[in-house]
Amino acid sequence: MPDWQLEAAKPRDIDRILNIDRNAFDRPWQRRSFLEELDRKDAYTYVARTHADNGHVDIIAYVFVRILLKEMHVMRIAVEAGYQARGVATGLLQHCFKLAKQHQVSAMYIEVRPKNTSAIALYHKAGFQMLGTRPNYYPETGEDALVMVKHIKEQL
Ligand SMILES: CC(C)(COP(=O)(O)OP(=O)(O)OC[C@H]1O[C@@H](n2cnc3c(N)ncnc32)[C@H](O)[C@@H]1OP(=O)(O)O)[C@@H](O)C(=O)NCCC(=O)NCCS
After folding, report:
1. Is 131 in the pocket of ligand 1 (CB under 6 A)?
2. Tens digits of per-residue pLDDT, 22-53?
3. Using alpha carbons only, what angle is made at residue 74 by residues 70 and 79, rounded to the nearest 5 degrees?
4. CATH for the stretch 4-151
5. What is the pTM of this model?
6. Nearest-CA neighbor of 78 among 29, 11, 33, 12?
7. Contact yes or no for 156/97 (Cβ under 8 A)
8. Distance (Å, rounded) from C-alpha 30 to C-alpha 22?
9. 39-46: long-range contacts (C-beta < 8 A, 24 or more apart)?
10. What's the Rg (C-alpha) of the chain?
11. Which atom of ligand 1 is nearest to the CA of 122?
12. Of ligand 1's atoms, which has the minimum distance to the CA of residue 76?
């Protein structure tokens, strides 16, 4: 059993999500961007919470996805540094796969920077394949994005 639980993200979680995001990314999202995702009808947003023995509850990871027609797009995923390499991101993705199946999604997509080798390894291990590149996807650096896809089958 994991020592964390998944729950739908709420506006009161945004400070903690922002904190994780700032530690995880060179170019963090703005508070407004996270709040907009929470408001979108096509967005599904989750946090992973730990429950310590002393009763302290903390958010250690989040995943934000959108479902557009029969496609799921992973918008943002990150795990607090002290909780990485414990299968948390894999658990978040597994939850998204179940959600995709419930919504009859046929494929799940994610864009990733070529230099983000840990994320690429995570997605490969979770069953994503390389689909191609989006040229100049990241405007700040002009970097291309790698596009990865996982086809969702009837039986996951
Ligand atoms: C990428 C990230 C989400 C992975 O989260 P995580 O909870 O540590 O991942 P998991 O423990 O589920 O790892 C699953 C697999 O991913 C790969 N992986 C994860 N971290 C890795 C690392 N630092 N180096 C190499 N492979 C790594 C491994 O294949 C791993 O399987 P293994 O444990 O059997 O070796 C996390 O490192 C993170 O938050 N990074 C910063 C934000 C980010 O880059 N998000 C993705 C943007 S596209």
Report:
1. no
2. 999 999 999 999 999 999 999 999 999 998 77
3. 150
4. 3.40.630.30
5. 0.95
6. 29
7. yes
8. 10
9. 40/66, 42/66, 42/67, 42/68, 43/75, 44/8, 44/96, 44/99, 45/8, 45/9, 46/6, 46/7, 46/8, 46/9, 46/92, 46/95
10. 15
11. 16
12. 47
